[in-house]
Amino acid sequence: MIATRLLQLSVVVITATIWVLSSTSESLRFDLESGRTKCISEDIKSGALTVGKYDVLNPNEGHPLPDSQKLTVKVTSSYGNVYHEAEKVGTGNFAFTAPEKGDYMACFFAEEHKPPITLTVEFEWRSGMAAKDWSNVAKKGSVEVMELELKKMYDNVMAIQEEMYYLREREEEMQDLNRSTNSRMGWLSFLSLLVCLSVAGLQVWHLRTFFQKKKLI
Question: How does strand 118-127 pair with strand 49-56?
Fold first, then answer.
């Protein structure tokens, strides 16, 4: 029994570790045609720090970025709250602590241009542990290498614990949803059976009335 519990705990810790390391950082490069919008979403838990940085690659290095190559950027939550908005920019960044869990979306819009042009955008989005700047922590705190590593380990453990609680909440939500769905399916099946029996009864009554009128029975 103890070995089984330890195995289950190890699986949970490994899963949470993979969740922390893989789902909290996103760095990519994409092309955006003029007159079009591209949105990127990130699932962020409540209370987590999130930071983002974006740059439009200048096709003419050494020259200012023309207005036709600039973007309009907007970051919103699934509830419609706006956390960052910038118009006609070539580079920028944002940082905030998520007040609510859910999907947050960063949308990039390139204005119409004749003839059409394509912008290349570099975008980096980090949240949770990945959003912390450890180099600044080391400089500001004047800590030794070992102390810094211990702090990293401690924060990683705390992040894993928070993720475990978060996954447990999500599991409970899914269980509640399954129970609700099963209950509704049971009522739907009962109503379907009731309708079928009612239709069958009406058919029998109709046929009986018809045969009685024809004096067949």
Answer: antiparallel
Note whether 117 and 68 are within 8 A (CB). yes
Average pLDDT, the chain: 79
Q: Does domain 28-143 have CATH number 2.60.120.380?
A: yes
In three-state secondary structure terms, 91 is strand
Helix, strand or coil, per DSSP, at residue 90: coil
Dihedral angle over CA of 14, 26, 43, 83, nearest 10: 140
Which of helix, strand or coil describes residue 166?
A: helix
> Phi, psi (5° rounding) for residue 71?
-120, 160
Encode pLDDT of 72-122 as tens digits: 999 999 888 999 999 999 899 998 889 888 899 999 999 888 888 889 999
| Crossing angle (nearest 10°) for helices 134-141 and 145-213 | 140
Query: Which residue, 34, 40, 36, is CA-closest to 67?
Result: 34
Q: Which residues are paired to 127 by β-bridges?
A: 50
Query: Model pTM?
Result: 0.55
pLDDT of residue 25: 56
User: Where along the chain do its domains lie?
Assistant: 28-143, 144-216
